Automatic annotation (TrEMBL):
Purpose of the protein: Allows the formation of correctly charged Asn-tRNA(Asn) or Gln-tRNA(Gln) through the transamidation of misacylated Asp-tRNA(Asn) or Glu-tRNA(Gln) in organisms which lack either or both of asparaginyl-tRNA or glutaminyl-tRNA synthetases. The reaction takes place in the presence of glutamine and ATP through an activated phospho-Asp-tRNA(Asn) or phospho-Glu-tRNA(Gln).
Keyword field: ATP-binding, Ligase, Nucleotide-binding, Protein biosynthesis, Transferase
EC number: 6.3.5.-
Similarity field: Belongs to the GatC family.
Pfam families in UniProt: GatC
Name of the protein in its database record: Aspartyl/glutamyl-tRNA(Asn/Gln) amidotransferase subunit C
Any one GO biological process: glutaminyl-tRNAGln biosynthesis via transamidation
Catalysed reactions, semicolon-separated: L-aspartyl-tRNA(Asn) + L-glutamine + ATP + H2O = L-asparaginyl-tRNA(Asn) + L-glutamate + ADP + phosphate + 2 H(+); L-glutamyl-tRNA(Gln) + L-glutamine + ATP + H2O = L-glutaminyl-tRNA(Gln) + L-glutamate + ADP + phosphate + H(+)
Encoding gene per record: gatC
Amino acid sequence: MSITRDEARKVAHLARIAVPEAELPRLADQLNGILQFMEQLNEVDVDGVEPMTGVTPMRLKRREDVVTAGGMQDKILANAPDAREGFFAVPKVVE
């Protein structure tokens, strides 16, 4: 796939960047370089490769799923401008 000067102009317009007319051929060349690199990446065989969380092998940190600071409903609702029946009261926004 090759990006033309008109397509480069359209990409610049969609990206909301001002590109002078004289710079459009250079932009088209740069976009073509990016697309060629993407084509190279598509040629890599990744079958059987496990996804990584980072470049160094490590396990994600885990913690027990336990309540650590419960029972503070009254303290939390004390800061609310309007609380009713144990909940924050907010204005209706959907009719």
